[in-house]
Amino acid sequence: MSFIRTILGDIPSEQIGLTYSHEHVVIDHCYATSLHPEFLLNDFAKLKTELAELKKLDLSLMVDTMPVNAGRNPLLSAKLSEETGIHLVVPTGIHQEKYYPKSHWRFQYSEQELADLFMADVQDGIDRYDYNGPVIRRAQAHKAGLIKLATDETPFSSHQEMIFRAVVQTHRQTGVPILTHTTQGTLALEQAELFAKLGADLDHVVLSHVDRNPDLGYVRAVLDTGVSVEFDSAFRWKTNPNQTYQYLEQLLPDYPRQIVVGMDAAKNAYWKSYGGKPGLDYLLTTFPEELKTRGLEDYLDLIFIHNPRRIYSFIKPKKS
Ligand SMILES: [Zn+2]
Q1: 103-159: per-residue pLDDT in tens?
Q2: Cβ-count burial of 34 within 10 angstroms (0-12 exposed, 13-18 middle, 19+ buried)?
Q3: Which of 61, 87, 256, 273 is the least crowded, having the fewest Cβ atoms under 10 Å away?
């Protein structure tokens, strides 16, 4: 039976309901928050308040997307999930280079050393120190359920290609699904092609922020490879027309099984509980109303429930 690996354990995929597909739920102190204090999301009372509102709107699962040594706190995530009843997936993998100091171990370790760290997060439990120091103490009950990588707007470096190989090795050997960061939707096609070449199962690969790419033809080419895409900018466009809603109108009829949605609310100024806006409930209030006015209500269950269930399920591990 297919399952999704949450911070509190594995659950049958069919038990998952409404899903937010690219979130920032917990971001504890780390190098990234020292550069960007607005990313800090570690006030338990505020996090709980915001998630409790989402629970009232029937949200089932949030896919958290801060990978190793970029603010993970598996014990805080577990407590938040326990106290709100919202399932949380917490990732392994690694973020953009800019979120780590130049001296970071990610630039020193071999492909196999990186893959071994990722695999241990998935199989043995996330390091409660988030791979911050030489001592590793695994939260054995709290495993990673996703693996992430990130690229910027320049052609892949050899370091990034090594990360792709370590990520696909982890995916194939443990079955963990893959989510990526693209920078404004650039190089999404190159990501998809490299995953295909390395033997990833594209039914379980989702590329984020692709609705920020201004070229609809390019987005279609990405979808034609078979990967899924995540859209999260509906509330960000200051322009009218709103590109995310337009893309959904044009793409859902042709690619109904390859699109999911999220908030990507990494800045605490997007959270109502931090005094910001629009609040994480936007995606369960304003967003579905807008889709209904566009005649897209029949796709809501696909993008919120059925597509995430498939994408975030583990695959059967492969021998090599
Ligand atoms: Zn993000």
Answers
A1: 999 999 999 999 999 999 999 999 999 999 999 999 999 999 999 999 999 999 999
A2: exposed
A3: 256
Distance 319 CA to ligand 1 centre (A): 32
The domains found in the chain, sorted by start residue, are 3-311 (3.20.20.140)
Mind listing the pLDDT tens digit for each residue in 4-57? 999 999 999 999 999 999 999 999 999 999 999 999 999 999 999 999 999 999
Q: What's the CA-to-centroid distance between 202 and ligand 1, angstroms?
A: 20
- Residue 24 CA to ligand 1 center (angstroms) comes to 6
Euclidean distance between CA atoms 17 and 30, whole angstroms: 32
Positive or negative, the CA dihedral 307, 310, 311, 312 is positive
70: which DSSP letter?
Answer: S
CA distances in angstroms from 18 to 54, 84, 87, 117, 277, listed in the order given: 10, 15, 10, 31, 21
Residues 6+ apart with CB under 8 A from 215: none
User: Which residues have C-beta within 8 Å of that of residue 186, sequence separation ≥ 6?
Assistant: 153, 213
Residue 90 corresponds to which tokens in the numbers above? 């917490």
**Cis amide leading into 317 (omega within 30):** no
Distance (angstroms) between ligand 1 centre and the Cα of 269 equals: 14
Query: CB-based contacts of 40: which residues, under 8 Å, 6+ apart?
Result: 27, 28, 29, 33, 268
